[in-house]
């Protein structure tokens, strides 16, 4: 039999070597910029700018987050951790909570009014399932989907835009449903020490005592939160899950 894996293997090898080479060249060119001390200096400038321009900085972060989620771009989780790290827990929760809901609503409206045909073609079968579940459980179905991070939010935003669900209902249910997960991820980000602290005290000194406790708590919450939510929803018989093809099912 012909070796069908040969060309694919060679292509993967070429891509790997190209990526490794690009990373190596990039590190060589930016090695002075990527040191902890250099990044700590950049962080200090950024925090100084935020201190002198708090409203503008908050608005920019809000707009970037809403834009990323509204256009269904990857990176929302990293942005959430960054916001928690940079703005702290409480301000970070407020920003991410409203920005993520704003972005989700933008994606919802784009799907409904601009990309209806494309979404219908791509997610037609899932749309049928969503409509059936909304008829049975109403907005609570959306609430359960928002609670479980394993369900891709971009799919929810796109498909829900084609359902009869009202925009206001979609907004407030999403706001409420995503709040718990937002708190967990923002707390995880806020538990990471600043680069300035790492540069001044060293990694060992910065990650000690209370800091380690906070980080440990954050990691536990990140791992346990989806399991707890699933257990609670399963207890009430309201657990949506995703099969291997990403199709919504009901357990």
TrEMBL record:
It is a multi-pass membrane protein. InterPro entries: TMEM64, VTT_dom. It holds the Pfam family VTT_dom. It is found in: Cell membrane. Signal peptide: none annotated. Residues 76-190 form the VTT domain. Keywords: Cell membrane, Membrane, Transmembrane, Transmembrane helix. PANTHER family: GOLGI APPARATUS MEMBRANE PROTEIN TVP38-RELATED. This is TVP38/TMEM64 family membrane protein. The gene is ydjZ.
């Amino acid at each position: 039999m012909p070796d069908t894996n040969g060309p694919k293997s060679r292509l993967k090898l070429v891509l790997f070597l190209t990526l490794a080479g690009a990373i190596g060249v990039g590190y060589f060119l930016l090695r002075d910029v990527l040191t902890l001390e250099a990044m700590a200096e950049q962080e200090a400038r950024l925090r100084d700018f935020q201190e002198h321009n708090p409203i503008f900085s908050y608005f920019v972060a809000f707009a970037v987050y809403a834009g990323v989620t509204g256009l269904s771009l990857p990176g929302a989780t990293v942005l959430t951790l960054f916001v928690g790290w940079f703005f702290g827990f409480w301000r970070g929760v407020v920003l991410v909570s409203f920005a993520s809901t704003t972005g989700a609503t933008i994606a919802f409206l784009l799907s409904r009014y601009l990309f209806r045909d494309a979404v219908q073609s791509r997610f037609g079968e899932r749309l049928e399932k969503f409509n059936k579940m909304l008829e049975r459980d109403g907005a609570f179905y959306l609430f359960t989907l928002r609670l479980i991070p394993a369900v891709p939010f971009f799919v929810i935003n796109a498909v829900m835009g084609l359902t009869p669900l009202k925009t206001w209902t979609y907004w407030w249910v999403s706001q409420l449903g995503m709040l718990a997960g937002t708190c967990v991820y923002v707390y995880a980000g806020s538990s990471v020490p600043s680069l300035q602290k790492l540069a001044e005290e060293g990694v060992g000194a910065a990650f000690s005592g209370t800091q380690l406790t906070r980080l440990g708590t954050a990691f536990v919450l990140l791992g346990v939160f989806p399991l707890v939510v699933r257990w609670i929803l399963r207890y009430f018989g309201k657990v949506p899950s995703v099969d291997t093809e990403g199709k919504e099912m009901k357990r």
